From TrEMBL:
Keyword Ligase: no
EC number: 5.4.99.9
Organism field: Bacteroides gallinaceum
Annotated InterPro entries: UDP-GALP_mutase, UDP-GalPyranose_mutase_C
Alphabetical UniProt keywords: FAD, Flavoprotein, Isomerase
Ranges for domain UDP-galactopyranose mutase C-terminal: 156-360
Protein name per Swiss-Prot or TrEMBL: UDP-galactopyranose mutase
Highest taxon above the source species: Bacteria
Cofactor(s) for this UniProt protein: FAD
Name of the top EC class for this enzyme: isomerase
Family assignment from sequence similarity: Belongs to the UDP-galactopyranose/dTDP-fucopyranose mutase family.
GO terms, molecular function: UDP-galactopyranose mutase activity
């Protein structure tokens, strides 16, 4: 008999949700994390009364009522609706592309006029390709213009995408934006999901609620004393990097990362919105997050005299940086498959979450995965 049923490596949303369901089934868990805090990438730091999303802005969204009801049973979520604004050379445009954007771009006021303008621009893009002797878009630049036309591509897509990927749109594959949502209604809600919001009081409340009554240890790296940690439990739930788990025996998986430049400003309201994208190439950051707008609405914004902003710079990943986004190219996909084959042969280890599965997961699908996984285990 070992001390714990489960040792859970990583206190992010995967590890914390797993621990919660395991405890509900009467299992004894220990959750460890190498960071000095719990919560993984949803962790928030409270600065001047504002919950600052330290590892990037997180908006919970789902159409799955079971997932929504579950997270709301842990902590109630607020009514935040993601409606980013794009700033191109000092002019503002609503996102995602909708009637507000088309009005701001072309002055059109009816869906019919907007559609006519889009069709005209699409036809011009197809004609340009024809003149070049091609019928199918060869890259993202051509694909975007065939889908939405030159004006929106040049002002709202080109610069942002090139900064985000660190490559020219003409050198990026077309499939990245095979679908661009275009709405002929006045609706700035970025997500199509039925439910969205932010936990009232911040994400730490969600993590603390999930981990209520469960033993945790921060500042504890599994790899610093692997034999000891392994001796503690019958089973391990591993949510760290899968290549690290196997000593990088086949080589290192690659990631993209983001650098955050955070500032506290002596103004109650810096940009009037949580998310402003900077879509021109010459502004080096991709977007500016003003954290208070995730949880303070209307006049509430002025109850807090200061504000905290984060400028996001999309960056190449090197060892020692936070691994944020898996790179789903052919080489990395093949490398991951080799590690996955090893993982599939394990009997007492569950690999889960964005690092262990080398997969970009939004939060809700991750919670859904744990819910179904745990139902399958018991
Ligand atoms: P993580 O949160 O990364 O947790 C893994 C934990 O394991 C970490 O705390 C780490 O310290 C710990 N760990 C790793 N190795 C070890 C070790 N050797 N020993 C001990 N501990 C270890 N999703 C949305 O739904 N909406 C959004 O708006 C959204 N925005 C995002 C923005 C950014 C910039 C990023 C990167 C992601 C975003 N996501 C968003 C996705 C969301 O962050 C993930 O779904 C979720 O955080 C993944 O949880 P996880 O537990 O798998 O991983
Ligand atoms: N995008 C864009 N302009 C914007 C926002 C997004 O061109 O103002 C494109 C860009 O190619 C980006 C993709 O849409 O890679 C997805 O962006 P989003 O912010 O929705 O996704 P995330 O970066 O969170 O994966």
């Amino acid at each position: 008999m070992k001390q714990y049923d489960y040792l859970i490596v990583g206190s992010g949303l995967f590890g914390s949700t797993f621990a919660h369901f395991a405890k509900r089934q009467g299992k004894k868990c220990l959750v460890i994390d190498k960071r000095p805090h719990l919560g993984g990438n949803v962790y928030c730091e409270n600065i001047e009364g504002i919950n600052v999303h330290k590892y990037g802005a997180h908006i919970f969204h789902t159409s799955n009522k079971e997932v929504w009801d579950f997270v709301n049973s842990i902590v109630e979520f607020n009514r935040y609706t993601n409606s980013p604004v794009a700033n191109y050379k000092g002019r503002l445009y609503n996102l995602p592309f909708n009637m507000n954007t088309f009005y701001q771009m072309w002055g059109v006021t009816t869906p019919e006029e907007a559609q006519a303008k889009i069709d005209e621009q699409k036809a011009e893009a197809v004609a340009r390709m024809k003149a070049d002797g091609v019928s199918e878009p060869r890259n993202l630049e051509e694909q975007a213009q065939v889908l939405i036309g030159k004006d929106i591509y040049e002002r709202l897509i080109k610069g942002y995408t090139e900064k985000q990927w660190g490559r020219k749109c003409a050198d990026l594959p077309a499939f990245i934006i095979k679908r661009l949502p275009v709405r002929l209604v006045f609706d700035n809600n970025y997500f199509n999901d039925k439910y969205q919001g932010i936990p009232i009081g911040g994400y730490n409340k969600l993590i603390d609620g999930l981990l209520y009554g469960i033993e945790t240890k921060t500042g504890a790296d599994f790899f610093n004393d692997r034999t000891y940690w392994e001796s503690l439990a019958d089973k391990i739930v591993f949510t760290g990097k899968i290549d690290e788990f196997y000593g990088y025996c086949f080589g290192k998986l690659n990631y993209r990362t983001v650098r955050f430049e955070q500032e506290t400003l002596d103004t109650p309201n810096y940009q009037g919105n949580a998310v402003v994208n900077y879509t021109e190439r010459d502004v080096p950051y991709t977007r500016v997050i003003e954290h208070k707008h995730f949880e303070m609405f209307g006049q509430e914004v002025y109850n807090c005299p200061q504000t905290v902003i984060s400028k996001e710079y999309s960056t190449e990943w090197h060892d020692g940086m936070e691994p944020y986004y898996p790179v789903n190219d052919a080489a990395n996909t093949a490398l991951y498959a080799k590690y996955k084959a090893l993982a599939d042969d394990e009997t007492n280890i569950i690999f889960g979450g964005r690092l262990a599965e080398y997969k970009y997961y939004d939060m809700a699908p991750l919670v859904e995965k744990v819910m179904s996984l745990y139902t399958g285990l018991v």
